[in-house]
Amino acid sequence: MQKNWIAVLALSGTIAFVPTVSWAQLSDTEKGTGVGVLVGGGTGAIVGAAVHHPIAGTLIGAGVGGVGGYAVGHHLQQEHEQNAMTQRELSSQRHQIEEQRREIQQLQQDQDTE
User: If both were cysteines, with which of 18, 45, 62, 96 could 7 make a disulfide (CB 3.0 to 4.6 Å apart)?
Assistant: First the structure.
């Protein structure tokens, strides 16, 4: 009976801390790892309680969840960084195009006044 309570507490803790981890000012990799550890640990506790080894299940689940969460979070972080770089390049190109338009207009005006 006590093992079931451990599983319930682990799951409750996981559910309570997921929003906290998600809202913290962490990188996507850190968020993914944290959420993976929490969800994996909670899931592992439940599975472990079912086979009468809740602590082992929690530790194994947290490890597997952490690795999976790290992989997903790292991938998302790389995508965000790539998108930010693309946006910076687009902004720079727009600025250059605007400068060239001004130069063309100035040259046309100079040519019209001659």
Answer: 45
Tokens read off for 112: 């019209």
Residue in this structure with the two tokens 């299940």, named with its chain if needed: 57
Q: What is the pLDDT of residues 58-96, one digit of tens each?
A: 888 889 999 999 999 999 999 999 999 999 999 999 999
- List CB contacts of 41: < 8 A, sequence separation 6 or more: 10, 14, 58, 59, 61, 62, 65
53 in helix, strand or coil?
Answer: coil
Residue type at position 111: Q
* Eight-state DSSP code of residue 114: -
Domain residue spans in the chain?
A: 2-113
Residue count of the chain? 114
The two structure tokens encoding residue 37:
């550890």
